[in-house]
Amino acid sequence: MGGESIMNVVMEMLKELLVLLENFGGFLVEEFEKVFPAGSREEKVRQWVQVGKPFLIHVLAIFLLYSCLSCCCRYCCGRRGVVKMMKAPGRGGHRIPRARFQSDPSGYFRALHANGR
Fold it and tell me: Cβ contacts of residue 45 below 8 Å, gap of 6+?
């Protein structure tokens, strides 16, 4: 497939997507008109807002609480205490801090061979 034929296929797919979105938008408008008829639309919208307000307030409060707690936990209990570990080469599955090995790999192997391993 050449570049032009790929572009034609992509353009056709985008056209289909646009038609689908247009049909979906029309469907949403029709459903809105059914639920909220023109004569009583303002009254019904107010009623739905009154019913949904407590739910939305609770959802917003839970979201804000979660956001604050996750931010505080990242700040207080963040990655400062977490040490990345790795399997120590030549030590049979023993685990060591990655930073210690990466800071001086040749020194690690010198010490390993000096200890007779």
Answer: 36
pLDDT tens-digit series, residues 81-103: 577 888 888 888 788 888 888 89
Q: What is the dihedral of CA 67, 73, 74, 77, to 10 degrees?
A: 180
* Contact between 94 and 85 (Cβ < 8 Å): no
pTM of the model: 0.35
In tens, the pLDDT along 31-70 reads 988 888 888 888 888 888 899 999 999 999 999 998 888 7
Across the strands, what pairs with 18? none
Rg for the chain (alpha carbons), in Å? 31
